[in-house]
Design brief:
The chain is built from four helices and no strands. By secondary structure, it is mainly α. The chain has one domain. Helix 2 packs antiparallel against helix 3, helix 2 runs parallel beside helix 4 and helix 3 packs antiparallel against helix 4. The radius of gyration is 22 Å and the shape is flat.
Length: about 130
């Protein structure tokens, strides 16, 4: 009995140590990877973050269009959401034109604005104020 408990405890400990790194490395699929290379002598550009932000913008644009097509988002709501998305895209282009790429604070600003817009899209798609019936 004692040998069985010791074996089970050893197996549990081994499984716990194997699963912790997997859990610790998990991140949401929509998260923007950010790395600040300023201390390593790189220029201030992070092309991965820029590409991820562009992909997020494209996804949100697609969600707005899909909501308008299905009638979940009214024309007025869609126009307002598209205007906000265009302002964020314009701000991103402005940051990129600075010649130094996107800084960490610029990436965080854009990502938080996109997250806020994503919440607004979700709300407008489920507020039932454009439904007939």
């Amino acid at each position: 009995m004692k040998k069985t408990l010791t074996t089970l405890a050893a197996i549990a400990a081994a499984l716990t140590t194997l699963s912790v790194p997997a859990i610790a490395s998990a991140r949401p699929a929509h998260a923007v990877l950010v790395s600040d290379h300023r201390t390593s002598g790189w220029n201030h550009r992070d092309d991965r973050a820029s590409a991820q932000l562009s992909a997020k913008i494209a996804r949100l644009d697609s969600r707005i269009d899909q909501g308008r097509r299905t009638g979940q988002i009214s024309m007025r709501e869609g126009r307002r959401l598209n205007n906000e998305l265009n302002l964020i895209s314009s701000q991103k282009r402005s940051y990129e034109r600075s010649g130094r790429g996107l800084s960490l604070s610029e990436i965080n600003t854009l990502d938080s604005r996109l997250d806020r817009l994503q919440g607004q899209i979700r709300y407008e798609k489920h507020d039932f104020n454009n439904r007939r019936g």
